[in-house]
TrEMBL record:
<keyword id="KW-0479">Metal-binding</keyword>
<keyword id="KW-0378">Hydrolase</keyword>
<dbReference type="GO" id="GO:0008936">
    <property type="term" value="F:nicotinamidase activity"/>
</dbReference>
<dbReference type="GO" id="GO:0005509">
    <property type="term" value="F:calcium ion binding"/>
</dbReference>
<keyword id="KW-0106">Calcium</keyword>
<feature type="domain" description="EF-hand">
    <location>
        <begin position="1"/>
        <end position="25"/>
    </location>
</feature>
<keyword id="KW-0662">Pyridine nucleotide biosynthesis</keyword>
<comment type="similarity">
    <text>Belongs to the isochorismatase family.</text>
</comment>
<comment type="pathway">
    <text>Cofactor biosynthesis; nicotinate biosynthesis; nicotinate from nicotinamide: step 1/1.</text>
</comment>
<dbReference type="GO" id="GO:0019363">
    <property type="term" value="P:pyridine nucleotide biosynthetic process"/>
</dbReference>
<protein>
    <recommendedName>
        <fullName>nicotinamidase</fullName>
        <ecNumber>3.5.1.19</ecNumber>
    </recommendedName>
</protein>
């Protein structure tokens, strides 16, 4: 397809034109780093994951994430924030103000933190009950002070609708409303998404799976993520891997971007 010079090579001008027109968009990934919910409440606040079943420490993600931010040239960096109003449906202390459906196995009067109840419909809605956490503008909702926030990064708030929870950074759990993330990614022509943060088996996993479902090449960074429940973390990894996601350690990332 190319006019070749006498040595059989296309000349520099022709190559530059092809590179700018189409080669670049095929061979050059546009890599986005999505850092999920590295907020005080998940590390040392009301939903401290070190007190959850897996007994992992949320603080452990900060050092490897900062190292990636310092050493890898991502095309864009996003920080998500769980950002709930005070009357949010996921808070167990709001249960008295809401109606559990008779079909719910866990009854309102027996419900404990981390249980899943079914709220009245229509449509019925399964909801895991969490301690009050990441309330808008509270200390617990702030990014941890040791997490590096790079210039030009974009913050995405989720979970702002009191009636529906939102684990994925893309959509709420009912897929009723999108955050701004999809539009931001399209505007940047993103091809590859590197996902990590808290909690591995909740918001990180849901975000990675949504990224895959949209069609992004998705890389889950294992050592930059900590979760709530070990068997759920394993389930997350299996589902991501079987959906063609890639699971790596942070020391493998620089060579990929
Ligand atoms: C999360 C539980 C409740 C998370 C958010 O960010 O993983 N987990 N809300
Ligand atoms: Zn939440």
């Amino acid at each position: 397809i190319f006019d070749r010079n006498k040595d059989g090579y296309i000349d520099r001008e022709e190559f530059t034109r092809c590179w700018n027109q189409w080669i670049k968009t095929i061979v050059r990934p546009v890599s986005v780093f999505l850092i999920v919910d590295v907020q005080n409440d998940f590390i040392s606040g009301t939903l401290n994951i070190s007190q959850c079943a897996a007994q992992q420490n949320g603080l452990d993600v900060i050092e490897p994430i900062n190292r990636l931010l310092d050493t890898v040239e991502f095309d864009a960096v996003f920080y998500s924030l769980d950002w709930h109003p005070s009357d949010h449906v996921s808070f167990i202390d709001n249960l008295p103000y809401r109606r559990v459906d008779p079909s719910s196995q866990v009854k309102a009067e027996d419900a404990k933190t981390y249980d899943t109840v079914v709220f009245e419909g229509p449509p019925l809605m399964k909801q895991r009950l969490w301690p009050r956490h990441c309330v808008q503008d509270s200390w617990g909702a702030e990014l941890h002070k040791d997490l590096k926030v790079v210039e030009g990064a974009i913050k995405i708030c989720k979970g702002t609708n009191p009636e529906v929870d939102s684990y994925s950074v893309f959509w709420d759990n009912k897929k009723l409303t999108r955050t701004t993330l999809s539009d931001e990614l399209r505007a940047k022509n993103a091809t590859d998404i590197y996902v990590c943060g808290l909690a591995y088996d909740v918001c990180v996993g849901a975000s990675a799976l949504d990224a895959l479902s949209i069609g992004y090449r998705t890389v889950l960074i294992d050592d930059c993520s900590r979760g709530v429940d070990l068997s759920d973390i394993e389930k997350t990894k299996k589902t991501v891997a079987s959906s063609s996601g890639v699971i790596v350690n942070s020391n493998q990332v620089k060579a990929m971007v």
